């Protein structure tokens, strides 16, 4: 994968950066890049989590960022977290991540300074980001599909790999724009009025933070696959995304929701979501598979299956081998399981991340059974976040049901390792900085690692 990363970099150099028509300066993944042109004039320093190589992320000292574009805001970060997607980055499976890139696409904070064209945000506002960066003016952004933004990502390789370039993402490699992330004490927010949502006083950071990704992403997976009253639903992966997708499926009126994983997370999910059924596939009887178990529980199969695991998690040796030698980038095992477990003419959605090609995909099952296979895309956060904030304010959803840990930013590299191993009962963490407010009542105490 490191070799693939190098090849990706060379390919981008050969193809040339597609930087025409950009709405913001991209590829400033650390303020200290390019001879310090993007550092704050005060010379102030900050802590930030940087990718330093495959399986090597570290807290480094770097410079505080400065406003580059008129529509920028500099945010003093009061909360961030680690995402399952960050683990893919740490593993180097996402191409075009470079040494020194600051990671983190989920964060909240206080506006510290604003660029001259900002009118709707003011210094001191409490805000949460959207992981995706919207220009606000292209046809996709106007349509509230900001992850398809045409003007915030200059990666030519992205366009070549997928046939169409997606929008920028904070702290997620140069494939998605090379923006510095918010696992830091400060972060630059380009096009800030499109990409920050004000947090009302009655909502603490520990709840608001998850509007940046987990809540909209899990909600999108359920809305986009058309989960409705009376449906039966199975969801692969009970990390924060799959766990919250189970919650939303229930809230949409699904009669039966089955969450699937291979560890303690099945019990955790069951303890937090009343009526949830689960399958821990590590404990299945000999000869039984996830789909056969689902058919036993719901004869004929479920109406909707959602894959919230991720293409890098091969189960069997064949895919492990093929991935190791670069014969495929993603396993097809979970998608095939979804196909086998879904009733004829049902729906299968993919919200877990997949990056490239896969082998042994059962296209026959897809075609013959008339299954509707839905790529959910990177979730269009801005499409949902106001509606979701309202639900948080009304208490219809409490995002802290997935919050199990609180760490200091100094410990965030260790939190990556916990997230990777899924040990220590970690589902989702809140990472504080020196600017954070005191812990909100009822949320986890600080753990030192
Ligand atoms: N599309 C988007 O907008 C978007 C946004 C955020 C995250 N994601 C992706 O969603 C996925 C889940 O994110 P997360 O933060 O919950 O990650 P996570 O790593 O915490 O959770 C993934 C879970 O899947 C389980 N799993 C692995 N293989 C499995 C299998 N074969 N069957 C069932 N479960 C299996 C793991 O044990 C783990 O509990 C990741 O791939 C992440 O990159 C996508
Ligand atoms: Zn995320
Ligand atoms: Zn746009």
Automatic annotation (TrEMBL):
Every Alcohol dehydrogenase-like N-terminal domain range: 70-201
Cofactors (names): Zn(2+)
UniProt biased composition (Basic and acidic residues): 19-40
Pfam families reported in the protein's UniProt record: ADH_N
Statement: the UniProt record of this protein carries the keyword Manganese: no
Keywords: Metal-binding, Oxidoreductase, Zinc
Lineage, uppermost ranks: Eukaryota, Fungi, Dikarya, Ascomycota, Pezizomycotina
Domain of life: Eukaryota
Protein name per its UniProtKB record: Alcohol dehydrogenase-like N-terminal domain-containing protein
């Amino acid at each position: 994968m490191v070799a693939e990363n190098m090849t990706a970099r060379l390919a981008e150099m050969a193809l040339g950066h597609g930087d025409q028509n950009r709405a913001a300066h991209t590829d400033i993944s650390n303020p200290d890049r390019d001879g310090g042109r993007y550092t704050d004039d005060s010379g102030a320093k900050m802590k930030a989590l940087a990718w330093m190589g495959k399986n090597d992320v570290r807290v480094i000292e770097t410079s505080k960022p400065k406003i580059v574009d008129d529509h920028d805001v500099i945010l003093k970060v009061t909360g961030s977290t680690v995402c399952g997607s960050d683990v893919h980055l740490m593993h180097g499976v996402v191409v075009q991540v470079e040494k020194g890139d600051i990671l983190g696409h989920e964060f909240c904070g206080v506006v510290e300074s604003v660029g001259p064209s900002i009118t709707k945000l003011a210094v001191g506002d409490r805000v949460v980001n959207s992981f995706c960066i919207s220009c606000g003016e292209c046809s996709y952004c106007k349509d509230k599909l900001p992850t398809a933004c045409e003007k915030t990502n200059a990666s030519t390789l992205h366009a070549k790999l997928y046939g169409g370039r997606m929008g920028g993402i904070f702290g997620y490699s140069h494939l998605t724009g090379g923006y510095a992330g918010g696992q830091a004490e400060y972060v630059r927010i380009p096009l800030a009025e499109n990409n920050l949502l004000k947090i009302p006083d009655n909502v603490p950071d520990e709840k608001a933070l998850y509007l940046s990704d987990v809540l909209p992403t899990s909600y999108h997976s359920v809305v986009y696959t058309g989960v409705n009253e009376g449906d039966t639903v199975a969801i692969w992966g009970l990390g924060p995304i799959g766990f919250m997708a189970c919650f939303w499926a229930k809230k949409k009126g699904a009669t039966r929701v089955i969450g699937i994983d291979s560890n303690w997370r099945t019990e955790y999910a069951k303890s937090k979501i009343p009526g949830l059924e689960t399958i821990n596939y590590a404990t299945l009887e000999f000869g039984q598979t996830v789909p056969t178990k689902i058919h036993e529980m719901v004869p004929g199969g479920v109406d909707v299956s959602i894959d919230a695991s991720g293409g890098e998690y091969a189960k069997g040796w064949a895919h492990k081998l093929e991935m190791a030698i670069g014969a495929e980038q993603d396993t097809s095992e979970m998608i095939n399981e979804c196909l086998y477990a879904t009733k004829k003419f049902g729906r299968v959605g993919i919200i877990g991340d997949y990056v490239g090609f896969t082998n042994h995909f059962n296209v026959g099952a897809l075609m013959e059974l008339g299954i509707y296979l839905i790529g959910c895309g990177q979730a269009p956060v801005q499409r949902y976040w106001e509606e979701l904030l309202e639900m948080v304010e009304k208490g219809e959803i409490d995002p802290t049901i997935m919050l199990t840990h609180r760490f200091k930013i100094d410990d965030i590299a260790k939190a990556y390792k916990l997230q990777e191993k899924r040990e220590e009962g970690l589902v989702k963490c809140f990472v504080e900085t020196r600017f954070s407010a005191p812990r909100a009542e009822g949320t986890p105490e600080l753990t030192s690692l």
